[in-house]
């Protein structure tokens, strides 16, 4: 089955900092990645490279920050009051959380520092500002279910070649 719009794609990949060769992410550690082709759920350059391919296809792609996760933006570093976290059982450096922004959208943040009553958090993607190398292998391709299409993202159902 070929990858095209509306197909659920299962990927195995390694992501490296292309300048330092540091391994940043490996699906062997976190499990395969699933997305629906053409729904904007994954990096456009990767989706473009996979269009029309089938299970077993492998490629290596290099991405600039603009093609990947964007430039690092200092405006995404915020300071919050520790009291804003009363709903959390525990807060610590490295904690991921979702915050509601003033414009009504949500943004993922990671706590980078806690000092007295001030919590510093970073909303940049961990790969922002990096030249990346994706070593990608298509593990599977299947039709998306009506529910997945309606929700706009893939659900884990296993995969078919």
Residue fraction in strands: 35-45%
What general form does the structure show? globular
Run of helices and strands:
EEHEHEEEEEEH
CATH class call of the largest domain: Alpha Beta
Q: What class do helices, strands and sheet pairing give? A: mainly beta
Number of strands: 9
Query: If you average the pLDDT, what whole number results?
Result: 93
What is the radius of gyration? 18 Å
Low-confidence stretches: none
CATH topology of the largest domain: Chitinase A, domain 3
Main pleated-sheet profile: 5 strands, antiparallel
Please provide a written account of the structure:
There is one protein chain. The protein has 161 residues and is mainly β. The chain has 2 domains: 7-69 and 128-151, Chitinase A, domain 3 (Roll), CATH 3.10.50; 74-122, Thrombin, subunit H. The chain is built from 3 helices and 9 strands. Strands 1, 2, 3, 4 and 9 form a 5-stranded antiparallel sheet that branches. It has a 4-stranded antiparallel sheet with strand order 5-8-7-6, with no helix packed on it. The longest helix is centred in the N-terminal third of the chain and has 7 residues, at 44-50. The mean pLDDT is 93.
Salient structural properties:
Chitinase A, domain 3; globular; mainly beta; cytoplasm; 9 strands; rotamase; five-stranded antiparallel sheet; chaperone; four-stranded antiparallel sheet; Thrombin, subunit H; 161 residues; 2 domains; 3 helices; EC 5.2.1.8
Provide a short characterization of the protein structure:
By secondary structure, the chain is mostly beta strands.
């Amino acid at each position: 089955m070929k990858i095209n719009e509306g197909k659920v794609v299962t990927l195995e990949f390694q992501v490296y900092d292309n300048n330092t060769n540091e391994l940043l992410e490996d699906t062997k550690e976190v499990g395969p990645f699933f997305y629906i082709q053409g729904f904007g759920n994954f990096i456009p350059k990767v989706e473009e490279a996979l269009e029309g391919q089938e299970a077993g296809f492998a490629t290596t792609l290099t991405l600039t920050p603009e093609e990947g996760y964007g430039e690092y933006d200092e405006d995404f570093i915020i300071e919050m009051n520790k009291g804003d976290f009363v709903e959390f059982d525990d807060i610590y450096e490295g904690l991921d959380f979702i915050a509601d922004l003033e414009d009504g959208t949500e943004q993922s943040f990671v706590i980078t520092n806690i000092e007295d009553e001030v919590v510093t958090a970073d909303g940049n993607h961990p790969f922002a500002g990096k030249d990346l190398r994706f070593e990608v292998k298509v593990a599977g391709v299947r039709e998306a279910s009506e529910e997945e299409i309606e929700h706009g993202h893939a659900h884990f159902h296993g995969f078919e070649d």
